[in-house]
Amino acid sequence: MAIFPQTRARTSAPHSAAVRLPSLQYLGPNWYATVMGTAIVASAGAALPVHVPGLRAACTVVWALAAVLLVAVLAARAGHWSAHRDQARAHLLDPAVAPFYGCLSMALLAVGGSTMVVGRDVLGDRAALAVDVVLYSAGTAIGLTVAVAIPYLMVVRHRPAPGTASPVWLLPVVPPMVSAALGPLLVPELPSGQWQEAMLLACYAMFGLSLLATLVMLPLIFARLVHHGPLPLALTPTLFLVLGPLGQSTTAVGQLANVAPGAIGAPYASALGAFAVLYGVPVMGFALLWLALAASMVVRAARGGMTFSMTWWGFTFPVGTCVTGAAGLARHTGLTAFTWLAVALYVLLVTAWAVAGVRTLRGLFSGALLAAPQAPQPVTVRTT
Predict the structure, then answer these.
(1) Coil, strand, or helix at residue 266?
(2) Are 203 and 256 a contacting pair, CB within 8 Å?
(3) What is the rounded CA–CA span in Å between residue 312 and residue 360?
(4) Using CB atoms within 10 A of its CB, is residue 311 exposed (0-12), middle (13-18) or buried (19+)?
């Protein structure tokens, strides 16, 4: 029912009904994925290198929905920490749950970025800039903290068993890449000279931080698949999470190349423009390979009885980063093929978002998504 296996924490003496909030007890950090997946629909739609009548207005509506979702999930998570601190601490110490704290950073960054891209149509330039500065600063600070804290906990406290590597492990190290991709929106707003150059190079540093950490973890994830077989049905959609750092890094180098000429001198500006293509095209090729592999595994899992869970939100944000990456390559290369790739991926994104959204609303209204985790079924051993 949740995107991760829940941990039953030891609870202290029962509190009154006014203090305990049963509906929030099992609400984990994975719920920020709904915010990320919604915000990327708005940002990716605005990034498409084609003009579709009414698309800009639709993206603005989706941005507003993402902003409302962010406020709602932040409030719900604050209630969770306030009323169910035992469960919240258990989440941090659970190797299956702790990586999802990276989603908080990416939710803040995604809404901030979409505010600058489409929200400014409603708020105006100054208000949109103020919102993005706050959300970008908070999201980046949290993302850098999580990128260190969660791997640290994995080493000293979690100690995951061999063969348990999962694409979920990428979630703590992807936020700096999101910061690198969205930082270029703020570069032109800074004073020229040292400020802009420092921001540009800081984004490249976060790009490298996230990329190298991803390259460390990807072999572990693929080795787990090869040596231990497919993921459990409920976790199969998390294979799409691998697309996140691939698409987001392609987006990042393209966006950074766009603002480089005004922030850094020659010959670096032109070199960074060439790097956007030389890096982006091969990585997009690998992203399409992984998309085909992950989709095949999802089809297999669906035939095996996979039912809806919050992991289905993994179909949204990672695909959205591939949309923005392909759109950036279309602009840098002028190739129509990348334009059609971006459009095709956006159709996939919107379809996945609509399905995940409808199924999530259904689960909320039924109470299934916020219910307590089911206890393991007892095993009966027959003796002869």
Answers:
(1) coil
(2) yes
(3) 9
(4) buried
CA 27 to chain centre: 18
pLDDT digits (tens, 9 = 90+) for 301-341: 999 999 999 999 999 999 999 999 999 999 999 999 999 99
Contact 310, 359 (CB under 8 A): no
Which stretches of the chain are DSSP H helices? 32-47, 55-83, 85-92, 102-114, 120-123, 125-153, 175-182, 194-228, 243-263, 268-303, 317-333, 336-366
Low-confidence ranges of the chain (pLDDT < 70): 1-22, 372-384
Contact 34, 358 (CB under 8 A): no
* Type of residue numbered 232: P
**Does a cis peptide bond (omega within 30 degrees of 0) precede residue 267?**
yes
Whose tokens are 């099992």? That residue is 26
> CA 92: distance to chain centroid?
18
What's the pLDDT score for residue 368?
Answer: 85
Contact 372, 26 (CB under 8 A): yes
Q: What confidence score (pLDDT) does residue 277 get? A: 97
Length of the chain: 384
